[in-house]
Amino acid sequence: MSTDTGLTERFRHRLDPFAVSLDRTTATVVAMVGLDVVWWVMLYTGEVPMPGMMWLTKQGIPMAAPGAMELGVFHVGTLDAFVGYLTMWGVMMWAMMYPAMMRFTREYAAAYEETALGAATAVAAFLASYCIVWALSGMIPLGFNALLPGGIHGFTRAYTHLVIGGVLVLTGLYQFSSFKQTRLRTCCARIEPHDHGIVKALERGFMHGGSCVLVCLGPFFLVMPFFGEMNFFWMAILTGVVTIERLPEWGEEIATALGVVALLAGLLALALQPSLPLTFVA
Questions:
Q1: Taking the model in full, what pTM does it have?
Q2: Which phi and psi angles does 194 have, rounded to 5°?
Q3: Is residue 75 part of a domain?
Q4: Is 7 inside any structural domain?
């Protein structure tokens, strides 16, 4: 009987080689991939607010230069400019974090114990509050820009090797910290069965978003602002970094390895002071 069943299954697949089961987990992954494409296209085509862009262009400052976006928004100085910056930052963070969040969001949908409509509502609410947290996290680089003499751009130009080496060393040390490793375990944890309504899903999104921000303090809030946010090379590299360190089985080891690389690179930059790409000094 089992042999006949196996033959029937193989015959069925030969007749229908493109058979796909569009269950809730598959639908969640499809939605995540689709949204991620939208975020990246918006960034690539410039369909996000970029306060002070015209002024930066007139000053000859590349958009990919360290602190350029913060310099532009502080030059404009209006509430609309700051809201526009947080919107731009949010889209950038969503684009970079969605690949890393794919597994967690899929499992969150799979762990939902009620109807498919309820699962869709819970996932949508979870992602909405998660995205809000990441948009608001843009206040961190804005804070750096306000505190540093000359802002991020001016400070990096004045002390290029010290800044680049320093942020890499700090990032490496943070990767090793027990605080980082604990937060990373939270991001990689399995999801318990749940029946979250909108309120609970929103709460879970806020909590998980805050945890993810803490996990990414080194790559996104030290490296990115001082290497240049709108530099697509660094954006692609850091997207890979935050994605692979969330692999459940060996994410902590990857985070440690990346910390070693960042620490060594930082020490070499401080000791040897090599030539750096134009965007660091433009």
A1: 0.87
A2: -150, 165
A3: yes
A4: no
